[in-house]
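Handout, page 2. Input:
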Amino acid sequence: MSENSSSIEKTVVLELTNVKKTIRKKEIIKGISLSLYEGEVFGFLGPNGAGKTTTLRMIVGLIRMTEGEIKIGGYSVKKDFVKAMESVGCIIENPEMYDYLSGWENLKVLASMEKGITKERIKEMVSLVGLEKRIDDKVYTYSLGMKQRLGIAQALMKRPKLLILDEPTNGLDPAGISEFRKLIRSLAENENLGVLVSSHILAEMEVMTDRVAIIRQGSIVKVTSVENIVREKGITYVVSDVEKAKAVIEENFKGQVHIKGSDQLVAIINEKDVPDINQKLFAEGVLIQYVSKNQKSLEDLFLELTAGDEIV
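Output:
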């Protein structure tokens, strides 16, 4: 999803406006603003103590914000809490369920606490998360991945507009993580669901999410699309004259060039220009010893913005 196109055309399912939280006269959350759209998987990342968990708790009403506004499905968490929460499904780490009951019985228990959840709706959710063959088995026989699927079925039965997942892949093996990622992508795309995912597994977030917000010391330091991160490519050159090479690239190809050593520079350029750049450098008498392509990752961006702090 493009940050500037697809998201604009879609409905906002979660909106935070200048949200602040002060505890014992210390400002923990410092005016966070962001929007999440239907059909979007949105990643929420932050180092230890950055305020990520505090923000999630404010979104679902577990703690009150000091200032600002949070809207879910168009309803204010502060002014119309019940309506806002009707639009939210939430799983915090491992989903809570009764191990001695079957998967089906667990879903029936939850359905009895909500209005309008029919037997047909339960069957629909079981099929959606792929648990048809095991839904009548006791939950204690389920793998962690199956429990996560059952938790998602529980969260989606009331037809929320927003699904919040806090560290959803904790404890899953690589196959389970892959299956879970595919399920979340399918839910967003086919059910038009907005999904907010917090996780410390940066490589997984890069392939699962459409956009990410990075929070540090109570402030959002970056909101960007994963597509934009991947698009930011750098070309490393080892040349005979870095100063001259820098001048040639900047003057003729509008690139940003950073000198990294006596014979090395990194150029942020359009990859298609590389053959023309090489030819121009040669014509200007600059010898090229080595050229390689770099690709910025979500982890690179995270470490750049958080100064290498611990990830949670």
